[in-house]
Amino acid sequence: MYLVVAICIEEVSTMVTMTPSAVEKVSSLLQAKDNDQLALRIFIKSGGCSGFSYGMALDEKKDNDQAFDIDGVKIVIDEMSSQYLDGATVDYVDSMMGAGFKIENPNATSTCGCGSSFKTADGAGKPGACC
User: Fold this and answer.
1) What order of strands is seen across the sheet that includes strand 108-111?
2) I want to staple 126 with a disulfide (CB 3.0 to 4.6 A). Which of 39, 41, 46, 69 is the partner?
3) Could you say which DSSP state residue 15 is in?
4) Using one digit for the tens of pLDDT, what is the confidence trace for 64-111?
5) Is 114 helix (H, G, I), strand (E, B) or coil?
């Protein structure tokens, strides 16, 4: 029983990684909300100029979400999004060009110029307006 639980946790915890700067930024956003039930929801939706676009929100865990913890930051990913985010890395970049989250996704075969839209090998998703 414990071995199976440990294996499931290991598989889920490697789905998405976060850089230290992303962990720091999300931690500060969660602390400002002062709600222990909130987590960072990472999701994809159909749309964007390449077929899928990324989304992030502070949200509570839902029934079919996969939930895990990265350095004290709770992460939730819905079942549909998990297949497209497996192996992705979330970073937070603060430069002269602006600040924001950036997702490096090994499942993306192409991305649009703004970096918030991507296409996968199976071509799923429905292109729409970008950004």
Assistant:
1) 66-70, 73-77, 38-46, 52-60, 117-120, 108-111
2) 46
3) S
4) 999 999 999 999 999 989 988 989 999 999 988 888 998 888 877 766
5) coil
| pLDDT at residue 5 in the model | 37
Contact residues for 13 (Cβ-Cβ < 8 A; gap 6+) = 68, 69, 70
What DSSP string describes 53-65?
A: EEEEEEEE--TT-
Distance CA 59, CA 51 (A): 24
- The predicted pLDDT at position 50 comes to 60
Tokens representing 31?
Answer: 């602390």
The predicted model gives 20-38 an average pLDDT of 94
∠ CA 18-21-27, nearest 5°, is 80
6 Cβ neighbours under 8 A, 6+ residues apart: none
Question: CB–CB of 127/47 below 8 Å?
Answer: yes
Sheet (strand 88-95) strand order: 16-18, 88-95, 98-104
Single-letter amino acid, residue 129: A
| Longest Cα–Cα distance in the chain | 51
